[in-house]
């Protein structure tokens, strides 16, 4: 008896990447686009439109770890909470206008909190002035909350969070002054919230800063990826990015 093996071709499901998000304008990830000055990040180049973030003080940028056990052995950029070692771009992202919807996402791990809001990353309304923040993501503070803040209007949505966990935070901004935010932690726990009443300045073109400060408070933790999207991220892109965070960094 002759046995003929059964042959078939399995359907290959492509792996998700943040580059696949509809409307992605820029995306920085810690495995690519890094140049170093010793152990400090000197520049970080985006993977979509090559937007370059540069250390505010040459030779004193965020600390680079090529294989960080805290994020599943992947590279990370760290701020120690004591040194102003931010990265910033100096070219305004003029593709974003006050009439556009847009989204931001951050993948990070906060080590300690502050009695206030310390900036993981966000928008600066004036290049070279980190205190003029029109939107930033706050690290857990004295009450261990994770949230978003708008400098010129609205309020702060927040969620109870735990230090020394990896998070993906997604924020969507509507041109009618409403924002939605979505959090998933390394345990797969999700939360959502919304805020209304954002001022017009919150949707103006902006420069970017990552690992910054607010009123002297410095972020203490790791950053692995962040990005900006033209438009409101779809439910499927949000779900895919959340799962990507778990698959990559946990």
Strand content of the residues, in percent?
Answer: 35-45%
The pLDDT mean sits at 75
Q: Give the overall shape, derived from the CA principal axes.
A: globular
* CATH architecture level-2 label: Sandwich
Task: Using the coordinates above, name the CATH class.
Answer: Mainly Beta
The helix/strand series, from N terminus to C terminus, equals EEEEEEEEEEEEEEEEEEEH
Radius of gyration: 19 Å
| Total tally of structural domains | 1
Q: Structural class per helix/strand content? A: mainly beta
Distance between the termini: 51 Å
- Helical amount among residues, as a percent range? under 10%
Describe the structure.
By secondary structure, the protein is mainly beta. The protein has one domain (21-249): Jelly Rolls (Sandwich). The chain has one helix at residues 235-249; strands at 24-29, 34-37, 40-45, 52-55, 63-68, 74-80, 87-88, 102-110, 119-124, 133-138, 145-150, 158-160, 166-173, 178-185, 190-196, 207-210, 213-214, 217-218, 220-230. A 9-stranded antiparallel beta sheet has the order 2-3-4-7-16-9-10-11-12, with no helix packed on it. Strands 1, 5, 6, 8, 13, 14, 15 and 19 form an 8-stranded antiparallel beta sheet that branches. A hairpin with a 4-residue loop joins strand 13 and strand 14. Residues 6-10, 126-137, 139-144 and 149-155 have low confidence and may be disordered.
């Amino acid at each position: 008896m002759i046995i003929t093996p059964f042959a078939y071709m399995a359907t290959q499901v492509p792996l998700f990447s943040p580059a696949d998000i509809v409307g992605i304008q820029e995306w920085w990830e810690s495995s690519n686009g890094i140049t170093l000055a010793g152990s400090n990040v000197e520049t970080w180049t985006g993977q979509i439109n090559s937007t370059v973030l540069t250390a505010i003080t040459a030779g004193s940028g965020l600390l680079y770890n090529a294989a960080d056990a805290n994020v599943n052995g992947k590279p990370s950029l760290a701020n120690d909470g004591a040194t102003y070692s931010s990265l910033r771009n100096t070219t305004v992202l003029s593709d974003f206008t006050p009439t556009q919807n847009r989204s931001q996402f951050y993948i990070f791990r906060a080590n300690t909190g502050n009695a206030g809001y310390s900036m993981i990353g966000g928008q600066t309304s004036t290049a070279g002035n980190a205190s003029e923040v029109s939107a930033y993501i706050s690290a857990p503070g004295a009450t261990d909350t994770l949230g978003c803040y708008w400098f010129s209007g609205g309020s702060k949505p927040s969620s109870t969070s735990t230090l020394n966990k990896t998070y993906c935070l997604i924020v969507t901004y509507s041109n009618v002054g409403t924002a939605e935010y979505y959090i998933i932690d390394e345990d797969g726990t999700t939360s959502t919230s919304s805020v209304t009443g954002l001022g017009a300045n919150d949707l103006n073109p902006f420069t970017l800063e990552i690992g910054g400060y607010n009123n002297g408070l410095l972020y203490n933790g790791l950053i692995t990826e962040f990005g900006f999207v033209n438009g409101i991220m779809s439910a499927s892109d949000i779900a895919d990015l959340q799962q990507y965070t778990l698959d990559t960094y946990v």
